[in-house]
Amino acid sequence: MGPITATAVIDFVTVVFVLATMLSMGLALTTDEILISLGQRWLMGKSLLVNLVLVPLLAFAFVLAVPMETGHVVGLLIIAMAPGAPFGPKLAEISNSDVAFASGLIAVLGVVSVATIPITVALLMPGDVSADPLGIARIVVVTQLIPLIGGLGVKARFQPVATRLHPPIQRLSTVLLVLLIILLTLVYAGEMRQLVGTGTLFISVAVVGGALLLGYALGGPAKPTREVLATTTAARNVAIALLIATTSFRDPGVLTIIVAFGLLSLVISGPVASLWDRLGEA
To answer: Alpha carbon 239 to chain centroid distance?
Structure first.
């Protein structure tokens, strides 16, 4: 048995992080939240359109228009294709918006993206990049769909158990996220520094900003759902994007841009949600 490498540790932490994150999400959601979201059919349709189609196409347009390194292209496309950040409901809570709709939307995106992520990978990934859509589908099913549905099942059938399990699993997810960011920063510090001056960070900001605007524009007439769709759309699912990157693409640039994009989306979406809350109170 060979020595444990840094990449092996990152791979392990990433898998456990995704499993804990999706299980935590399932344990926190209720059937009513999902049904309420599904009941708003027109709004749900537009929410799926912007998250699953428009944001990936926006990133793809930038990839076509601006010369970028292959690893950065792949990373930007993967994070754009991965909807449904687990902290979407938290952003809705910060903005004092429709938390129930945000929670239901995240659950729906978690299920639907099992099919859409492999499809968009097959359609949008550059031809010179080796990608395995079926392999990616298996990864998403095992690490995202199964723990999410498992958590939802426990919540529906054994609510006291879910209430006890959710806090420690949520803390584990948070700790693993911090650990993962530290590990990635240490291992890929050189690649992170190389992003400065490449224009890739500016493109990431543009995609996050575009996602915010698209979500707000398609969020319906009600301000709370506009705010929810805006921040939920901008905050992509870094967890599953990192897992896909670590298991399917070994170029360090792929991981680097996913981490950078994830941090930028938080830096932008968090203050925007807080601003909306203050404006609502004014």
So the answer is: 6
Residues 6 or more apart from 190 whose CB is under 8 A from it? none
- The candidate with the shortest Cα–Cα distance to 217, out of 109, 58, 106, 78, is 58
Query: What is the rounded distance in angstroms from the CA atom of residue 126 to the CA atom of residue 64?
Result: 10
Provide DSSP, 109-177: HHHHHHHHHHHHHHHHS-TTS---HHHHHHHHIIIIIHHHHHHHHHHHH-HHHHHHHHHHHHHHHHHHH
Separation CA 55–CA 235 (nearest Å): 11
pLDDT in tens, 94-147: 888 888 888 888 888 888 888 888 888 888 887 667 677 788 888 888 888 888
d(CA 79, CA 70) in angstroms, rounded, equals 14
**What count of other Cβ atoms lies within 10 Å of the Cβ of residue 85?**
28
> Which of 121, 123, 134, 101 lies closest to 34 in space, CA to CA?
101
What one-character-per-residue DSSP string does 173-222 give? Answer: HHHHHHHHHHHHHHHTHHHHHHHTTSSHHHHHHHHHHHHHHHHHHTS-SS
Give this prediction's pTM: 0.83
Question: Which of 264, 200, 273, 202 is closest to 232 using CA atoms?
Answer: 273
Is the Cβ–Cβ distance between 180 and 20 less than 8 Å?
no
**237 SS3 class:** coil
For residue 152, count CB atoms less than 10 angstroms from its CB and return exposed for 0-12, middle for 13-18, buried for 19 or more: buried
CA-CA distances (angstroms) from residue 89 to 60, 80, 94, 256?
27, 19, 9, 26
